[in-house]
C-alpha cells in the first residue's frame, strides 16, 4: 500500500475528487458518493479502504441506505489538496457558493490557530446608531488569536470590481468594528465565548480589533483609503503569518477594558 501514498498516486486521487466536486452543486459542503464513483478506490477491499481513508481528514465512510458511502467535506478538501494539484485556493474557491466561501475563510483561520465564529449578529445599543442610522450589524467571520481579533467581511468579488466599491465596503467594515467596540457587553461576551470561560481574558488586554476585507480575487490595491486591508483569498494564509509585521500599516481599534463576566452561583 505504500505506493498509494506516492506523490503521483495522491495527485491522481485528489484530481479525481476535484473533478467530481466540480460537477456538484456549490452550496453543498458535505458531498456523498458511492465508493464506485471514485475509480482510484475501486480495487480496495474493505480493510484497505478504511486504512487508506483514515489518513485524510476531509473524507470519511458513512452508512446510508444499507451501503457505505464516501463523504467528502469540500472546505477541508480545498485546504488539503493544494500541495498535490496545480491549483491555488482562489481557483478551488470556485467549488463554493457565498456561504462556502465564508466557511473556507473560517477554516483557514482555524488552521492558523484562530478561534472563530461565522455570521455574528449584534444590536447597537450605543449612541452611535443615531449617527449611522444603523441599529443591527452582521459580521461574516471573526477570528481571535492571542490579543488580535480579525473582523472579516467576505466578498466574492472579481478583479473588475471598482476600487470605489471596495473602498466603500471596507469603510463600512470599519464602521462595524467601531460599533462593536461601543457595545462593551457584546464584545465582552463575544471574546469570552470564543476563548472559553476558563480563559482569563483580562490578562490578554488590550485586544486589537482589525477590520479586513477578504475577496475572491487578488486586488491590485492592498489597502483602502482608511487603511483597511484588502486581502485576496489566495493571500490570506500569508497575510495571517505576516500580521504582526504589517499591523502598523492597518487601521485598528483597541479594546482596553471589557465587562466582567457574571459567575454562576
Radius of gyration: 21 Å
Helix content: 25-40%
* Parts with pLDDT < 50 across at least 5 consecutive residues: none
Largest sheet: 6 strands, mixed
Name the CATH architecture of the largest domain.
3-Layer(aba) Sandwich
Question: Which terms summarize this structure?
Answer:
three-stranded antiparallel β-sheet; Trna Endonuclease, Chain: A, domain 1; 36% helix; 2 domains; 265 residues; alpha+beta; six-stranded mixed β-sheet; 23% strand; 10 helices; 9 strands
Task: Describe the protein.
- By secondary structure, the protein is an alpha+beta fold.
- Helix content is 36%, strand content 23%.
- The longest helix is centred in the middle third of the chain and has 19 residues, at 163-181.
- The protein has 2 domains: 2-87, no CATH class; 96-255, 3-Layer(aba) Sandwich (Trna Endonuclease, Chain: A, domain 1).
- The chain has 10 helices and 9 strands.
- A hairpin with a 2-residue loop joins strand 5 (136-145) and strand 6 (148-155).
- The mean pLDDT is 92.
Itemize the secondary structure elements and their pairings.
Layout: H1 7-22, E1 30-34, H2 46-53, E2 59-64, E3 67-73, H3 74-81, H4 89-92, H5 98-111, E4 115-123, H6 128-132, E5 136-145, E6 148-155, H7 163-181, H8 184-195, E7 207-215, E8 230-232, H9 236-241, H10 243-246, E9 253-255
Amino acid at each position: 500500500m505504500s505506493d498509494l501514498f506516492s506523490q503521483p498516486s495522491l495527485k491522481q486521487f485528489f484530481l479525481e475528487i476535484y473533478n467530481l466536486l466540480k460537477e456538484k452543486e456549490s452550496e453543498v459542503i458535505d458531498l456523498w458518493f458511492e465508493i464506485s464513483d471514485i475509480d482510484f478506490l475501486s480495487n480496495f477491499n474493505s480493510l484497505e479502504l478504511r486504512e487508506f481513508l483514515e489518513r485524510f481528514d476531509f473524507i470519511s465512510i458513512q452508512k446510508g441506505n444499507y451501503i457505505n458511502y464516501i463523504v467528502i467535506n469540500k472546505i477541508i478538501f480545498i485546504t488539503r489538496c493544494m500541495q498535490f494539484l496545480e491549483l491555488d485556493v482562489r481557483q478551488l474557491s470556485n467549488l463554493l457558493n457565498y456561504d462556502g466561501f465564508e466557511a473556507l475563510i473560517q477554516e483557514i483561520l482555524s488552521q492558523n490557530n484562530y478561534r472563530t465564529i461565522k455570521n455574528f449578529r449584534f444590536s447597537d445599543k450605543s449612541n452611535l446608531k443615531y449617527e449611522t442610522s444603523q441599529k443591527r450589524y452582521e459580521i461574516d467571520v471573526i477570528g481571535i488569536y492571542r490579543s488580535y481579533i480579525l473582523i472579516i467581511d467576505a466578498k466574492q468579488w472579481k478583479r473588475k470590481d471598482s476600487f470605489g466599491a471596495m473602498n466603500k465596503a471596507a469603510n463600512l467594515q470599519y464602521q462595524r468594528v467601531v460599533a462593536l467596540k461601543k457595545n462593551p457587553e457584546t464584545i465582552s461576551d463575544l471574546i469570552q465565548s470564543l476563548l472559553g470561560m476558563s480563559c482569563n481574558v483580562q490578562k490578554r488586554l488590550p485586544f486589537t480589533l482589525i477590520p479586513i476585507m477578504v475577496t475572491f480575487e487578488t486586488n491590485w490595491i492592498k489597502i483602502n483609503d482608511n487603511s483597511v486591508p484588502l486581502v485576496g483569498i489566495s493571500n490570506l494564509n500569508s497575510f495571517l503569518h505576516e500580521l504582526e509585521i504589517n499591523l502598523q500599516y492597518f487601521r485598528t481599534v483597541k479594546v482596553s477594558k471589557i465587562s466582567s463576566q457574571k459567575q454562576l452561583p
